[in-house]
Recover the amino acids of this structure.
């Protein structure tokens, strides 16, 4: 069976609603068996420092992050964004890795790319 095309998503702003939607899309993609990666660029890194965002009737950002990771979504934070958010790598949730945008894009060169 051929490998399903991957989905690489970049969250480019610190908008909690967009981040929540990106987590939902990533989880759905992974649930379908599609290799899925999510990159938090620049100011978006601050979103993993505060996962309290929730909407009535939907899981919180923390729950969505946990679900996405459980489904195999690989989540990474921009190394420069850590500095912008005044966060240390150790303050990130355990499942969130750090990397640069160049390495993120290089690793998913054949993936479909989506900006959130």
């Amino acid at each position: 069976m051929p490998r399903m095309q991957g989905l690489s998503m970049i969250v480019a702003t610190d908008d909690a609603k967009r981040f929540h939607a990106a987590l939902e899309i990533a989880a759905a993609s992974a649930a379908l068996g599609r290799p899925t990666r999510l990159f938090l660029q620049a100011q978006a890194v601050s979103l993993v420092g505060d996962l309290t965002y929730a909407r009535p009737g939907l899981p919180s950002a923390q729950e969505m992050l946990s679900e996405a990771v459980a489904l195999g979504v690989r989540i990474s934070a921009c190394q420069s964004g850590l500095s912008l958010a005044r966060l240390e790598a150790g303050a990130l949730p355990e499942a969130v890795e750090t990397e640069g945008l160049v390495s993120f894009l290089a690793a998913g060169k054949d993936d479909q790319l989506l900006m959130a």
Summary: The first strand starts at residue 7 and ends at 11. The mean pLDDT is 93. The chain has one domain: 7-115. Helices lie at 16-31, 61-70, 79-84, 101-107.
